[in-house]
Amino acid sequence: MRISIELVPRGIEHLQSELQLIKAKFPSINTVNIPDLMRLDIRSWEGTAISKTFYDNCIPHIRAINFDLNKNITITEYLNLHRISEILVITGDHPQDINRKVYPVTSTDFIKKIKSECPNIKVYAAIDPYRNSIRKEYEYVQQKLDAGTDGFFTQPFFDIRLMEVYMELLEGSDIFWGVSPVTSLRSRNYWEVKNNAVFPKSFEPTLQWNIDFARRALDFSHGTNSHIYFMPIKTDLETYLAGIFS
């Protein structure tokens, strides 16, 4: 089983400090995944190269709309140079800065392209249980599999029952289940309005509720031979992980 932590590359020293902490105190974590945020100076693959000095298994998020598929995907040279053998492909939101160049490329377009040019790279795609009906999301999953996807990272779940539904639909797939703490009403509103997330009736915007859910999601992953990643966006990293793994 693989347990990943999603770390935002806010700066080199900050990222190294978080990696050192996790490596020293939480040996159960064996994978790191790095998002690609356009407002930051460090791109995901650069953050992943830094992470590779601590962990063998490091996965950058790659935004498909940043690449012109009429040309070779030059990023593969960087990936190979730094021994980055896994990536997570997302379509990507359009940047707020209108001067940034983007292309009309979907995640499935990019997956087909990179698998044809670099079949040695393991490619994960995203699953979002909230953006469509379950049927439409399942159809989208099949399109990604047809494009050459090797596995999936999900958007964070907040209900084991919904995870069970997707586990049945995705039986046989390599899955990283997403878990992210939501510890305020404002954060809950963001997830509901921005991402159409669904919270169970039992949900409480407390650290303890989120730690308890993370433990149950971890047990679920163990029991289904799948993987998990934790995304503590605004929660103290050490406190959150200590609660899960204590």
TrEMBL record:
Pathway: One-carbon metabolism; tetrahydrofolate interconversion. GO terms for molecular function: methylenetetrahydrofolate reductase [NAD(P)H] activity. Keywords: FAD, Flavoprotein, Oxidoreductase. InterPro entries: FAD-linked_oxidoreductase-like, Mehydrof_redctse-like. Its cofactor is FAD. Belongs to the methylenetetrahydrofolate reductase family. This is Methylenetetrahydrofolate reductase. It comes from Paenibacillus radicis (ex Xue et al. 2023). The lineage of its organism: Bacteria, Bacillati, Bacillota, Bacilli, Bacillales.
